[in-house]
Amino acid sequence: MAHALVNPDGLHDPVPFGYSHTATVPAGTELVLIAGQYGSGPDGAVVSADFTEQVKQAFRNVGVALAAHGLDLGHVVQLRTYVVNHDVSKLGPIAGAVQEGWGAKPPTQTLIGVASLAAPDVLFEVEALAARP
To answer: Which string of DSSP letters, residue by residue, matches 44-56?
Structure first.
């Protein structure tokens, strides 16, 4: 059995915001943890100073990391996103990238606003937890 995403009655619909409220993972499922990915190319350099481009590249990098384990975005159960100097204007690009990758079945997600990340030009980072059924 694969993981299940549930958005309970009594809680707002989080899907337009790019996440689900809860997820379950069956016992015996192999978990794959993806370290924080940022908007870097294969050389590790940030691909753009633009926040939206960094978000898109970071999610592409998550896809590459998952593929190394024979998985894809559909196996992701949880995301943690880190946003430098977060404000409401940054929600749209994040939700858009999540909706592009997961459609109506986004994983759970926690967004954390931070003062800075590993390097001054990194504006966004995402880590993922995936489940192999």
So the answer is: S-BS-S-HHHHHH
Nearest to residue 105, comparing CAs of 1, 13, 9, 11?
Answer: 13
Q: What is the CATH number of the domain that holds 37?
A: 3.30.1330.40
Number of domains in the chain: 1
Q: Which amino acid is at 63?
A: G
- By three-state DSSP, how is residue 13 classified? coil
Domain range spanning residue 33? 4-132
Q: How confident is the model at residue 1 (pLDDT cuts 50, 70, 90)?
A: low
Given pLDDT bands bounded at 50, 70 and 90, which one contains residue 133?
confident
List residues bridging with 42 in a β-sheet: none
Report pTM. 0.94
Tokens of 113: 């606003």
What CA–CA distance (Å, rounded) separates 128 from 34? 5
Which residue type occupies 128?
A
Of 88, 65, 91, the closest CA to residue 76 belongs to 65
Residue 68 pLDDT class (50, 70, 90 cuts):
very high
